[in-house]
Amino acid sequence: MRTTVGIIGAGPAGLLLARLLHNAGIDSVVLESRDRAYVERRQRAGILEQGTADVLRAAGAGQRMDREGLRHDGIELRFDRRRHRVDFPALTGGRSVMVYAQTEVCKDLIALQLAEGGPLLFEAEALAVEDAGTDAPRVRFRREGREDVLECAYVVGCDGFWGVARKAIPAELTQVFERTYPFGWLGILADVPPSHDELVYARHDRGFALLSMRSPSVSRLYLQVPDGTEAEAWSDEEIWDELERRFETADDWRLERGPITQKSVTPMRSYVHEPMRHGRLFLAGDAAHIVPPTGAKGLNLAVGDVVTFARALAHRQETGSPELLDAYSETCLRRVWQAERFSYDMTTLLHRAPGATGFEDRLQLARLERIASSRAAETDLAEGYTGFPFG
Description:
alpha+beta; eight-stranded mixed sheet; 19 strands
């Protein structure tokens, strides 16, 4: 089998890249190790930056998002039993975010790919990327019990942190930067309408809490918990009680409870692999970088990567110049490091580290007071949250 671009992974990054290449008249093949049902129910991110929503619209994949997604024009910060709303459009010249689950993005892009695009092979496990440093890279994969080879002009690894693509870059050429946080998020899905119409980020002496949503009838909520916590160690009642404590305000706001349908614990880490390119192999999304979820940047960073690659390859096809492809890693990493910085800032602003001192507690509150009282500080948060420009 032969194609111009071999894409490993049918998450939102790989599927969007296939769509962007199709619209540019460039053929591709997508290899996905899981079956379609798994990909379409895999729970991940739910916040789309302004730029991500705009890219989906331009790619022809935004109709259902605009019909069913929830546009949000701000977030609420809670600290010291106080509430402060950050107004995105007023601070960023009209930018906002969209609440639309990754599962729904994948469903939309899969339907488009199967109807109009190139091959999308489910249950096709990539085994290795070979000859990445040459002009003819190959992806060895297994499907239906048989091994096969996908011959490519380019390979893009959208196969996540545990995928095979990154392993094809020689270790002596790489640098890794990482930080592991001593806490995680206990996340729940609950069949109850959200208790607020925008996301609520709460800093509390007992730990961080986040009120989010997946739809007008389904809430998504998170609690900071110690690293290594098992989700089932918390009963439903204990979860709701702790959420109530951490979201407490001085007014009459109340948290609505409902049946919890899913529990999971998400570890918190920051990770960057440099470079993001080796020869004709390009890394995108979690294959190259991970951010703690506090800043809602993971999916959006992956979108930035594949937009950068698609533009660069289209430029090469149109002009013959490899300039933009050669600059891929540098271009993406500028945005990646800004998102890493923003996500780290949000994480350290809102989470209480184990053993935190009174001095550190007061610094957190002072930082939050600064955001609540300074338009410049508030604007910096709003600009970061709604998204950094694509390179």
